[in-house]
Write a structure and sequence with these properties.
The complex is a heterodimer of chains A (about 170) and B (about 725). With about 170 residues, chain A is α+β, with helices and mostly antiparallel strands. Chain A has 2 domains: about 80 residues, Beta-grasp domain (Ubiquitin-like (UB roll), Roll); about 70 residues, DNA polymerase, domain 1, CATH 1.10.150.120. Chain A has a 5-stranded mixed beta sheet with strand order 2-1-5-3-4, sandwiched between helices. In chain A, strand 1 and strand 2 form a beta hairpin. In chain A, helix 3 crosses helix 6. Among the domains of chain B are: about 240 residues, Aldehyde oxidase/xanthine dehydrogenase, molybdopterin binding domain (Aldehyde Oxidoreductase, domain 4), CATH 3.30.365; about 80 residues, Aldehyde oxidase/xanthine dehydrogenase, a/b hammerhead (Aldehyde Oxidoreductase, domain 3); about 140 residues, Aldehyde Oxidoreductase, domain 4 (2-Layer Sandwich), CATH 3.30.365. Helices cover about 25% and strands about 25% of the residues of chain B. Chain B has 17 helices and 29 strands. The termini of chain B are far apart. The relative contact order of chain B is 0.14. Classes of the chains: A alpha+beta (about 170), B alpha+beta (about 725). At the A-B interface, helix 1, helix 3, helix 4 and helix 6 of A face helix 1, helix 3 and helix 15 of B.
Chain lengths: ~170, ~725
């Protein structure tokens, strides 16, 4: 395994332009670089967490053109030409909270908080597609995000509450 | 001077007057019916907005200018000696800034540290590891605890692989077993489990002259400070440990692990800050686990189900560490007039165990409660009635009755009698854990020139909500909202506190926070009384000011603070010893309902009812989260979790999150939480920790429910489909 690692720096850096949270980022990175590495190491967008690095836990969930994706399993090159949204870009104004984020706080849909940005991003993709999810639909949608603290019951509550608040806001 | 005070302790229907000696200056404990404004309310966690927005910076998120990235070369063999190591090629790598060889006499598990490098990027550090040439002399090893117990097994320690850890005896066990109307014996096995905190272990070390600052994902800034000072032979006052947010711990971050001194030594060598973050794979191999157990329990009882004797013989492996105890739950749940305990640690060439949420208790309660159910089967008695008959706690008796009603225990069938292929079952188990707190921790409350209130304490918030409950308690005492108190923690430069573990934190730090805030209120009143020329009893403290009762005269706190030479008022208190408690520990119980698919062997936990006492509940919203977390981790332990070692090679097969499974959203049961408030005594907020109590009974209740559903018992955790199908086949054959 170590001999394979001797070449992990790859064939060299390539230029890369990504659109992240509505801003263009001109980057230079090896083709093997994941979107997760770009976000955390190159751009210091550390809200997206790195946990399992194998697409099992969902802590690195971001949106590509509004669809939830594991950033650890996405090469940065795959994100070229797509809109990348991270937890930092979920709300237009800095300091404000998305209804989902507010509901996670109000319902305590978190404990240590390390999985929370990923949970919020998965839930946001769900609500964009399905504004009135049933309890079972929420559980199914959140099944790709592990919370070791076991905040699930309140995560489900938070997602349902945010959906209700967002529906109410649209009707106003 | 201590002062005698009478406290009313207990719970409705069971109150009693207890005379206690309160230490001098100790606020009078809040009584059972105290009308509080902030404490006891569903206050959302104060760091919630930072966490949900991704702004909260964890150790894994920190960067410093000029920071280097470290990686560790680990021994691939379970037992080896270093024959030769050549780091010259790694040192010559253009991006490498420091290389460290970790001299050890022997490497005693696959994953032990051999060398480390610091480079300008993580990939360069990994690449450099591949350039280190190592030759090992491999040595005989043993990773299977049953083999390690045999004479002639390869030695993990010079003293031998088996060490007696616990031996107790009371009453007359042999006679009691002889005279018992029924005796059952059961052997229960539990696997090694992994903490799996989502933020793994990592340290960022920076030297400024001889001052070493380490940002570390830890549950114990002061313990890490002292261990690191010892490891580096450096004065502890020149070591500062900081942990702002931590992504879980569950016991795996209570101690310093070797990555921390490695980061510090590399930083010294390189003359630059070094960040060493363990990969998930490394985390699973090297930074602790829940020890395994093989427990043989023998229980004797009279015809009516009164326990007469218990024998508890157990061993387990914590790899290269000891501490594999399980029998602590022999006391505190049920009465056993005669008791004999014999426990052994078995050392193996595997990664070290360390405390994991309710260490020993989770495993022990599985075995104890299973044996009790086996006895009930034999005597044809109802498991709930037998527990009530032998129960030591008045609190838990009341909880058992409450929980039984909520799970509808009366519908429990005789074991194995549910017809059809989907079989339902019910199970129950109890919990006892002393999280009443310890003396020693300190809190400082300051009033700034703008009247702002800050509470500082070197404790840690590992996700339990310590920041929030500290803010609530200080706010309560000073007449503020929780959001008006800034809490600073997670820094060994702050006033001393103990590690965040053992369900001790709330009961350690909230009473002393209250004492410090009470001192602050007293100090403000005293200073204002001088300034305003009014007697303190004519003054009241509210809304960031001292007001004269019945007039509009007032003095803002900020003005009082500005009037001092430092422009700030500081009040510090130290946590005093516990005074009397109503019962010696927190009591709780859980009921589980399961559905077992006898065709696929799958278990679905349908519902868990969790009834828990933890003294005063400071914040029901956060408290419920703790209980949910305990139940969910308990179900996960019962059904899914097990570290698997290939004993032929001595290496872990599932050191990743794909093959080490933890419970996910689809498997979470319905959880009904029933808080059982008790005027517990012990300390001035009367809180008792809930972290461990919430996980202790879950796996036991689930295992008992599965046995009730099937009519056969899976005594080997985790309860996986293969074991269920195997047990059903075995019992069908036996019936034929």
């Amino acid at each position: 395994m170590l001999s394979l690692m001797a070449n992990i720096l790859g064939p060299g850096k390539v230029p890369l332009t990504l659109e992240i949270n509505g801003r263009r980022a001109e980057l230079s990175a090896e083709p093997r670089t994941t979107l997760l590495e770009i976000l955390r190491d190159h751009l210091d967008l550390t809200g997206t967490k790195s946990v399992c690095e194998m697409g099992e836990c969902g802590a690195c969930t971001v949106h590509l053109d509004g669809v939830a994706r594991y950033a650890c399993l996405t090469l940065a090159l795959e994100a070229v030409g797509k809109r990348v949204t991270t937890i930092e870009g979920l709300t237009p104004a800095e300091g404000s909270l998305h209804p989902l984020q507010q509901a996670f706080v109000d319902k305590d849909g978190l404990q240590c908080g390390f999985c929370t940005p990923g949970q919020v991003m998965t839930a946001a993709a769900l609500l964009a597609k399905n504004p009135s999810p049933t309890h079972d639909e929420i559980r199914a949608a959140m099944a790709g995000n592990i919370c070791r603290c076991g905040a699930y019951p309140k995560i489900f509550e938070a997602v349902a509450e945010a959906a209700a608040r967002m529906r109410a806001a649209r009707q106003d | 001077m201590a002062k005698k005070t009478k406290l009313t302790l207990g719970f409705p229907g069971h109150f009693k007057q207890v005379s206690v000696a309160l230490p001098a200056g100790e606020p009078i404990p809040w009584g059972f019916d105290a009308e509080l404004q902030v404490v006891g309310k569903r206050v959302p966690r104060v760091d919630g907005p930072d966490k949900v927005s991704g702004r909260a910076r964890y150790t894994f998120d920190l960067k410093l200018p000029g920071m280097l990235h470290a990686a560790v070369l680990r021994c691939p063999h379970p037992h080896a000696r270093l024959k030769r190591i050549d780091t010259s090629k790694a040192k010559a790598h253009p991006e490498v800034r420091a290389v460290l060889v970790l001299e050890q006499k022997e490497y005693r598990f696959a994953g032990a540290e051999v060398a480390a490098v610091a480079a300008t990027s993580r990939v360069a550090a990994l690449e450099a590891l591949g350039l280190i040439e190592v030759q090992y002399e491999t040595l005989p090893f043993v990773t299977d605890p049953d083999l390690a117990r045999r004479p002639g097994a390869p030695k993990v320690r010079p003293e031998g692989n088996v060490e007696e850890s616990l031996e107790t005896r009371r009453g007359t066990p042999e006679q009691a077993f002889r005279e018992a109307a029924a005796v059952v014996e059961l052997t229960v096995r539990t696997p090694v489990a992994l903490h799996t905190c989502l933020e793994g272990h990592g340290s960022l070390a920076r030297w400024e002259g001889d001052l070493l600052t380490v940002w570390d994902s830890t549950q114990a800034v002061f313990d890490v400070r002292d261990s690191l000072a010892r490891a580096l032979n450096h004065p502890s006052e020149k070591v500062r440990i900081i942990k702002d947010h931590a992504g879980g711990g569950f016991g795996s971050k209570l101690q310093m692990w070797s990555h921390t001194p490695i980061a510090a030594r590399l930083a010294k060598l390189a003359g630059a800050p070094v960040r060493l973050l363990l990969s998930r794979h490394e985390d699973f191999l090297c930074t602790g686990n829940r020890h395994s157990s093989v427990q043989t329990l023998k229980l004797g009882a009279s015809q009516d189900g009164t326990f007469t004797a218990l024998s508890w013989k157990a061993y387990g492996t914590g790899g290269i560490e000891g501490g594999a105890e399980t029998s602590r739950a022999a006391d505190g749940l049920y009465r056993f007039p005669s008791l004999e305990v014999h426990e052994e640690d078995v050392y193996t060439h595997a990664g070290p165990a360390c405390p994991m949420r309710a260490p020993g208790h989770v495993q022990g309660v599985v075995a104890l409660e299973a044996t009790i159910d086996a006895l009930c089967e034999k005597l044809g008695l109802d498991p709930l009635n037998v527990r009530l008959k032998n129960e030591v706690s008045e609190i838990r008796k009341a909880e058992l009755l409450l929980g039984a009603e909520r799970i509808a225990w009366s519908r429990r069938r005789l074991s194995g009698s549910d017809p059809g292929t989907l079989k339902r079952g019910l199970g129950v188990a109890g919990t006892t854990w002393d999280g009443s707190g310890l003396p020693g921790p300190e809190v400082e409350v300051t009033i700034g020139a703008g009247g702002e209130v800050t509470a500082s304490c070197g404790t840690q918030d590992i996700g339990t909500g310590t920041r929030t409950i500290l803010a609530q308690v200080v706010a309560e005492e000073l007449g503020l909202a929780a959001a008006e108190v800034t809490v600073r923690l997670g820094d060994s430069y702050f006033p001393y506190s103990i590690l965040s573990g053992g369900s001790l934190t709330a009961a350690c730090v909230t009473p002393v926070a209250r004492s410090a805030a009470a001192k602050a209120r007293g100090g403000l009143l005293r200073l204002a009384s001088r300034e305003l020329g009014e007697k303190p009893q004519n003054l009241e403290c509210s809304g960031h000011a001292i007001r004269v009762r019945g007039s509009d005269r007032s003095l803002p706190w900020g003005a009082i603070a500005r009037d001092t030479p430092s422009g700030m008022l500081a009040f510090r208190a130290e946590r005093q010893a516990n005074f009397a408690g109503y019962e010696p520990a927190a009591a709780g119980c859980q009921f589980a309902e399961v559905e077992v698919d006898t065709e696929t062997g799958e278990v679905r936990v349908v519902k868990v009812v969790a009834v828990h006492d933890s003294g005063r509940i400071l914040n029901p919203l956060l408290w419920e989260s703790q209980v949910n977390g305990g139940v969910i981790q308990g179900v996960s332990f019962a059904l899914l979790e097990q570290r698997v070692i290939d004993h032929r090679y001595g290496t872990v097969l599932n050191a990743d999150m794909e093959t080490y499974k933890v419970l996910g959203a689809l498997e979470v049961p319905e959880i009904e939480i029933i808080p059982f408030p008790v005027a517990a005594g012990f300390n001035n907020t009367q809180v008792v920790g809930i972290g461990e109590p919430a996980i202790i009974p879950t796996a036991a209740a689930v295992a008992n429910a599965v046995a009730n559903a099937l009519g056969v018992r899976i005594a080997d955790l985790p309860i996986t489909p293969d074991k269920i199908l195997g047990a059903l086949e075995w019992s069908a054959k036996r019936r034929r």
